[in-house]
Amino acid sequence: MNKYLGIDIGGTAVKMGIVDETGNILLSWEASVSFDNYNTPILETVLAESEAFLDKNNISPKDLGGIGISATGQIDTKNGIVAGSGGNIRNWDGADLKGSFTKKYPLPVTVVNDANCVALGEKWVGSAKNAKDVIVLTIGTGLGGGIIVNDQILLGRAGFGGETGHFSIHKQGEACTCGNRGCFEQYASMTALIRSVRRFYEASDPERLKEHPVNGRSIFEAVSKGEEAVIRIVDTWICDISAGITSLVHIFNPELIVIGGGVSAQEELFIAKLRAEVMERVMPNFRRGLTLRAATLGNQAGMIGAVYYLIRSL
Fold first, then answer.
1. What is the rounded distance in angstroms from the CA atom of residue 269 to the CA atom of residue 167?
2. Tens digits of residue pLDDT in 138-149
3. Is the dihedral of CA 243, 77, 123, 294 positive or negative?
4. Which phi and psi (to 5°) does residue 196 adopt?
5. Which end of the chain has fewer CB atoms surrounding its CB within 10 Å, N or C?
6. 3-state secondary structure of 70
7. Which of the 8 DSSP states describes residue 268?
8. In 3D, which of 219, 224, 164 has the Cα closest to residue 195?
9. What are φ and ψ of residue 7, in 5° steps?
């Protein structure tokens, strides 16, 4: 059975593993890439960690079928280069991932944006298995996603396609880090929900913030306890998420929407409500045959998806 090296490079850590041709992770490894505030460029760290991982497990590169890389940022997929990161990560813009790994290892190498790799992982062995038209959204600090059309990941001209967090749902809305206003991410991310709940407490009960930090867990605990004000804030957040998803459904006409991120574990308090809201909003013909469900691969999806893209490109 063929084996591949999958690498998932995030803003704080790199995950890598040996993945077989059926999507099983046989071995895995994780290391920090931000340990010295990026004074050591991420690419340099990942190259060193890949060598350490293979050496530790007595794996020769010649026994691998290739290297699939999932990477944060705007990825020029054709050339395997980090074209941009919004300036959020030092020494990352311009990193030549494909060239550097090809030079180090005589193997086929592919590089794809991490959110697109999450979608591909879910498509291969996760919640989107056997689906051909899928929208995958990952709700976390930001909002990422990938769009699969007719069984193919939508990458666009340069590989930047599927940037689902940055279309505007409120043209005069919150300023976004991308320079636009009212971006979907500013309303649909977990950061947006936490910001809204914190604003409420600052105005109504500032003492509470000193004793109870606001995070996803505490918010849904408040919802489960029936705190009406927090329930209203969460319902508004769900409504904003559904507005963006509805627009995506009307553009791409998918059969499936997959929701990832830690909040996707909240089936009753989040997924079920979001599903109902989306189904109510979309036009009848688009609703027919449409399903919305939680992702299943968690933080392994990017690594698996990177290998899936590699295999399909060989």
1. 26
2. 999 899 999 999
3. negative
4. -65, -45
5. N
6. strand
7. I
8. 219
9. -130, 130
**Strands laid side by side in the 143-149 sheet:** 152-153, 143-149, 134-139, 256-260, 291-294
For every residue of 56-68, DSSP letters joined together read: HTT--GGG-S-EE
Q: Where are the alpha helices (DSSP H) in the chain?
A: 42-56, 97-104, 114-125, 185-188, 190-204, 206-211, 216-224, 228-252, 272-281, 284-287, 301-313
Task: Find, among 124, 143, 135, the residue nearest to 240 by Cα.
Answer: 143
Question: What tokens were used for 313?
Answer: 């490109």
Q: Which two tokens stand for residue 109?
A: 């190498």
Provide the total of helices (H) and of strands (E) in the chain, helices listed first.
Answer: 11, 12
Q: Is residue 82 packed enough to be buried (19+ CB in 10 Å), middle (13-18) or exposed (0-12)?
A: buried
Q: Are 100 and 94 in contact (CB under 8 A)?
A: no
- pLDDT tens column, 97-153: 999 999 999 999 999 999 999 999 999 999 999 999 999 999 998 999 999 999 999
The answer to pTM > 0.70 is yes
Other beta carbons within 10 Å of 40: 14
